[in-house]
Design a protein that fits this description.
By secondary structure, the chain is an alpha/beta fold. It has ten helices and seven strands.
Length: about 325
């Protein structure tokens, strides 16, 4: 196992979330970056739409060095969802950078809840739209998600594709119908960001799944993009409650815990920043010429005193 001090800031942060999962579970859509699970007594199976060779053909920009794990289960999550997994069969589920690609995220939250055993956990990671190519797109509203869920659609429609391409600056008004259809097919196959949120905009989605869909989620922990320098992502750890609870109370609890985590993480970042500033100031002082001279004089003084004491003992 790699020591914490030897891993990057992101890896260290993800380890903090990984401690909440144990037993047997699945990661949905791991792509070329499976979620790190460094702790023992954790066994994961991968569910993905494509095999490694297919992934490399679809995403050549990742380069030859990109490694894709072989999926244990091949499935199109939009169409198949989690139908291949029995009810209450998983100790954990990992959905890292997945929900934004799916037609119906609300349906998948329900599916994840269904396959988790009571007490099981899910780690959800998402990009913050302000920090990616989604920065100029409008947030996906809860009403939008509810409408998508009501239609029961399992395929990426042209309207979503056009919104994505326009919002990311990849749309060309000069395309004729043939070229437009080709672009739609290409991006539909590669799996676009159907939806996008900031970390605060996603909270109402989870809250709705609790208050209106009857999913008894408990929020255990969170990761905010500000926690890791240069990060573009945020994450949540949710636990399927051991028993049913009153939905409105669970919704209020989830929201209360979220804002407490926000404050705790903000405070921790402040303390870490102050400590870093102190370390920097100490290093500056140590490197100052006057400090080096004073250190040499202090060393000489101590050596001289020590030598004089030895001389007195010898002369007695």
């Amino acid at each position: 196992m790699t020591a914490v001090g030897q891993v990057s800031g992101r890896e260290h942060a993800l380890r903090g979330l990984a401690r909440y999962v144990a037993g047997n579970g699945v990661e949905l859509g791991p792509g070329h970056a499976p979620f790190p699970l460094p702790f023992p007594a954790t066994t994961v199976r991968y569910v993905d739409r494509w095999k490694p060779d297919e992934n490399r053909q679809l995403f050549p920009e990742l380069g030859d060095e990109a490694t894709f794990p072989m999926p244990d289960i091949v499935a199109d999550l939009n169409i198949d969802r989690l139908s291949m997994l029995p009810d209450e069969s998983q100790d954990f589920v990992i959905a890292s950078h997945l929900l934004e690609h799916l037609v119906d995220p609300l349906a998948h939250l329900a599916e994840i809840y269904r396959v988790l055993r009571p007490g099981g956990t899910v780690i959800i990671m998402l990009p913050d739209r302000r920090l990616t190519f989604d920065r100029d797109r409008a947030a996906t509203t809860l009403d939008h998600l509810i409408d998508d869920h009501a239609t029961g659609s399992r395929t990426v429609d042209d309207n979503h594709l056009e919104e994505f391409l326009r919002g990311t600056g990849d749309w060309n008004d000069a395309w004729d119908s043939t070229e437009r259809a080709a672009q739609f097919d290409r991006h539909r196959e590669r799996s676009i960001h159907m939806h996008c949120w900031t970390q605060d905009e996603f909270l109402p989605v989870v809250r709705y799944s609790v208050t209106d869909m009857g999913l008894s989620w408990e929020l255990l922990d969170a990761l905010f993009y500000e926690d890791v320098p240069g990060s573009i992502e945020f994450g949540l750890v949710l636990r399927r409650s051991l028993g049913p609870g009153e939905s409105s109370a669970l919704g209020r609890r989830l929201e209360t815990v979220w804002y407490e985590l926000v404050e705790n993480h903000r405070r921790a970042r402040g303390i870490a920043g102050e400590a870093a500033a102190v370390r920097g100031e100490l290093e500056r002082i140590r490197n100052h010429p006057a400090f080096k001279v004073a250190s040499q004089l202090r060393h000489r003084a101590r050596t001289g005193i020590h030598t004089a004491a030895q001389w007195r003992r010898r002369s007695q």
